[in-house]
Amino acid sequence: MIPSVKKPGGNTRGLLAYLYGPGRHDEHHDPHIVASFSPRGLPDPGRDQDATLTALGQILDAPVRLRNEGFGKPVTDHVWHCPVRTAPGDRYLSDAEWGEIARRIVHAAGIAPDGDPLACRWIAVRHADDHLHILATTVREDGRRPKLHNCGMRAQAEARLIETELGLHQVAPGDRTGDHSPTQAEVHKADRLGWEQTSRAWLQERIRAAIPHAASVEELFAYLEADGVEVKVRRLPSGDLQGYSVGRPGDLKADGTQLYIPGGKIAPDLTLPKLRDRLAGSAPEEQPTARRNRRSTSWQRTTSALDSLHDHLTQHPDTWDDARAQAQITALGEIIDATAQTGPAELRNQLRSASREFARAQRSRIRADHHTATGLRQAARDIAHAGDGPDGSTFAVLLTALVWSAILAARWHQARGHHQQAEAARTAVIHLQAAYDQAAAPHLTALTHRQPNPDITHTLAAQVRTAVPDHADRILTDPTWPALATVLADAHAAGHPPRALLTEAAARRELTTARQPARVLLGRIQHTARNPAPNPRAEAARQRSQAAGNLPRPYSPSSTATTTGLPTDPRRPRSR
């Protein structure tokens, strides 16, 4: 149940005309009063043929007229309007139930507290099965104004209690970091102009799509202008930026001039200070020499960068650095958005849906320390500027990492009580998984066709039972197991012990909640196997350097095949 307090107005009669009218799309049926401030009832223009809208408006406005006849500044913003709507699928509510809901909402909001004979005048009009409108005039009988600060938050809190008591759909409580709901005027304007989105929604998508391309606010504005967005900046006398607003081409005011919307009115995290903080750069994270010098694509480097998020969010909740976690999740949204822009064309609808949903998970009441997520932000920029498209296997591996990242983000938000953000992340996971299923299908088919011979497959199955005994049965019965066996055999041929790869992959991604554990392991192992194979001689040298003068026993490495116990596939070259 959503109560939505609108901006105050000054025309009681005009709002009554809308509530009792047919609606802009003929959606108003049988409008009538279900509750009001008067215990004796009021003349209802919807049920009494002698009642008029003007007379009802005069009754509601009486305290306002009395106040304005005295001294002082006249009250002009006295109309309080709050539609209350149930969720699709909720049961039918009777007039009596809606009336009680209205009384509880005006009490919680401070319009008409229970037991206050001098409270504001109000009515609740029902003209549809799933919602009603509460109209109040915000001058009390004693001439004072009610205290309406945070009235919307109080009404929302009361709605959560009503949902529980009446068995209605439970709405996740908000934290005032959500998107601004479109106004009716914005929705009707978009319909009139044939736009699928309101201007604010359109502008938000353009700004978020531009963030991965920019290293500063000035670059961001330049990219937006190149993308066709109208940008207007405000500067101090010193020339420094003071603020900005953006406009959608063709979105004009009544006088024919361009309509501009400030960034903070588009989304809470798109104000100039927050964008500047988010785009502030710092030195990139240092990578190990072997990984830095190895040739890789931006997609592979992004998968590696996501390891920092995985490492942090898989720790015990008591050790979480919340400012760092929020920054990493914000940067994760940029990676998803950049992936949606430059990934394979056939996957972009799912990826854009994931990006759109995950935008809500990118912000919370926790202030992000964006300098701790520089590596992730650089990865998003690399993808946004990538000149080469990803091959199927590389992109599938990245999507596996993104799915796990979004799952971890949902768990972090849930643990911190961010219910709306957690739900948004879980919805994004659904779209990312759908994109992965589509991207991985041809790659898995090719791997399955190269399945090792039965002896090697049997030996690899034994390695699985040793490395991940709790999940071995699920892995070996997973339809993806033949493809995983091929990947393990390929990694072994390159010098990687399969048992070690399985152990490392299972440690990085718990398998209990995985839909298909073999797929999860396959993606992780493909990524890990890109690293240089273990070098026993180099490890022995490292141990000698740390022995502080204690000479170790002579080291005699055995072959990888002997160590792993894996027979040699005659179709594969021996590792050296």
Short description:
With 576 residues, the chain is α+β, with helices and mostly antiparallel strands.
Overview of the structural elements:
- The protein has 576 residues and is α+β, with helices and mostly antiparallel strands.
- Helix content is 50%, strand content 7%.
- A five-stranded antiparallel β-sheet has the order 1-3-5-4-2, sandwiched between helices.
- Helix 1 runs antiparallel to helix 2 and helix 12 packs antiparallel against helix 15.
- The radius of gyration is 31 Å and the shape is elongated.
- It starts with a strand and ends in a 12-residue tail after the last helix.
How are the strands of the biggest sheet laid out side by side? 1-3-5-4-2
The count of DSSP E runs of length 2 or more, i.e. the number of strands, is: 8
- Can you give the mean pLDDT? 88
| SS summary, helix count | 23
Regions with pLDDT < 50 over 5+ consecutive residues?
Answer: 282-293, 550-563, 570-576
Fraction of residues in β-strands: 5-15%
Rg over alpha carbons = 31 Å
Shape: elongated
- SSE-based structural type: alpha+beta
Largest sheet, strands/sense/barrel: 5 strands, antiparallel
Q: What is the terminal separation in angstroms? A: 66 Å
Helical content band: 40-55%
